[in-house]
Design a protein that fits this description.
Blueprint lengths: L1 E3 L3 H9 L8 E3 L2 H8 L8 H10 L21 E4 L4 E4 L9 H16 L2 E2 L15 E2 L1 H4 L5 H26 L8 H16 L18 H4 L4 H10 L20 H13 L1 E2 L3 E10 L8 E2 L7 E10 L4 E6 L5 H6 L5 H10 L8 E4 L6 H9 L3 E4 L27 E2 L6
Parallel strand pairs: 8-12, 12-13
Antiparallel strand pairs: 1-2, 3-4, 5-14, 6-7, 8-10, 9-10, 10-11
Length: about 400
């Protein structure tokens, strides 16, 4: 008979990690089963016992999928933050990773040193004297909204023109695209967005009920099709080996826009970080589905905007991000998003605001160390929160309770 054997660490990982590799199947006797399973008894319900062992660990309670990296335990469980796996400390197959060990040690030490007290205190706000609003010399010549738009995309148009001509040359075609012609191409696409026809070729139709003169007279149909075929933003022949960037082909577009957004405009002191959805129902590995949002399907962006709604920087969500995970090891997904987007404004005592998807004590403490204020709602089951607050049922309308920590966090 074929039996499936699970060691201690495999059983725990199967409970808490859906992607843990399945155990191998092999033939064996009951003695072999006991040897491979360690202390597990094949005649008992080992799943219930292992599950209860996992629940005894405070740090595995209620952190959510976005904080799987934070789920370090204190009673025999070690987290490998690089491989997203949970291991039993007693198992000989635990990966020896000094970086992971140091991170978990520092987090445990920080939690042990965090003390909460209730006392009268006032929040001090450092003076903020930096400029806010647009950088004047970029827009001094602008007379219309179109002029402002051209300032924002000027560098991008130059790059798109070069890469499109390069891509056509690589395919033995002479595109000879000019920047002015590319702007005309983009303008046609804008008009097609609000003046819809069954097919893009209908805009050049000879039928009067289809033909759109502003488009048909701006550019020949064949020329439009040629530009559409060879429009490119990045060099395909420069793709790094083992590339995992799903938006490599448009990476220059994202980087240049983010650079320009921050170059031409000084945001307010108060900044907000949140997610944003771009409606898309086609086929894409980047498409996300969230039935609880107004836009249920589409591309998800992480963005940081100022008090007036101006987007200072954004990032396209594409799943596992090894670069951010390496730079901000020991932090969960929501924490990494805040740290990565806000890094350009560290050291200026800016004020960041975000919701409970991102908030955690370790995030607030890290931002405080970077001379950046932060405020946000937080889920009651986040680890490290004070346990001695007055129960909500005992508070009257308008009452509140609070605690201050010795790590510059108020709750």
């Amino acid at each position: 008979m074929s039996k499936v054997f699970y060691t201690n660490e495999e059983a725990l990982a199967l409970i808490f990690d859906e992607n843990f590799p399945a155990a191998s199947e092999s033939e064996g006797t009951d003695d072999e089963f006991s040897e491979k399973s360690g202390s597990l008894d094949p005649n008992e319900n080992n799943f219930d016992r292992l599950f209860n062992v996992g629940l005894q660990d405070e740090n595995l309670k209620g952190c959510g999928d976005e904080n799987i990296d934070d789920q370090a335990t204190t009673s025999g469980i070690v987290v490998d933050t690089e491989n997203d796996c949970i291991y039993d400390e007693a198992c000989s197959s635990v990966p020896q990773n000094s970086t992971t060990t140091n991170i978990l040690h520092n987090q445990t030490k920080q939690e042990a040193e965090r003390k909460w007290k209730k006392h009268d205190s006032s929040t001090s706000r450092q003076d903020y004297n930096r400029d806010t609003g647009p950088v004047e010399h970029f827009f001094s010549h602008c007379q219309t909204p179109t002029d402002i738009f051209l300032v924002m995309i000027g560098d991008l148009i130059e790059e798109l023109t070069f890469q499109s001509n390069l891509y056509a040359t690589q395919h033995e075609k002479n595109l000879n695209l000019k920047e002015g012609e590319l702007l005309c191409f983009l303008g046609i696409n804008f008009m097609m967005g609000y003046h819809k026809l069954p097919s893009w070729k209908d805009y050049w139709s000879t039928s009067e009920d289809f033909r759109v003169p502003p488009i048909a007279e701006a550019m020949p149909r064949d020329r439009f099709e040629l530009i559409l075929r060879y429009l490119h933003a990045n060099d395909n022949k420069s793709v790094p080996q083992g590339n995992k960037d799903k938006i490599y082909k448009i990476r220059p577009v994202v980087e240049k826009l983010n650079h320009k957004f921050q170059q031409v405009y000084n945001g307010t002191r108060e900044l907000s970080i949140d997610e944003s959805m771009i409606l898309f129902k086609g086929r894409s590995t980047l498409k996300q589905y969230n039935p609880m949002k107004p836009i249920k399907r589409g591309y998800k962006l992480w963005s940081m905007a100022d008090q007036k709604g101006y987007t200072l920087t954004f990032k396209v969500y594409q799943g596992k991000d090894e670069v951010a995970e390496t730079e901000f090891q020991g932090h969960g997904l929501g924490e990494r998003v805040v740290l990565e987007l806000s890094k350009p404004v560290w050291g200026n005592f800016r004020e960041l605001y975000f919701d409970n998807y991102f908030s955690s004590l370790s995030l607030l403490e890290r931002l405080a160390a970077e001379k950046t204020h932060a405020c946000g709602t937080i889920r009651a089951n986040r680890k490290g929160l004070p346990k001695n607050l007055t129960d909500d049922k005992k508070l009257d309308r308008g009452d509140s309770d609070f605690r201050f920590s010795n790590t510059q966090v108020a709750y």
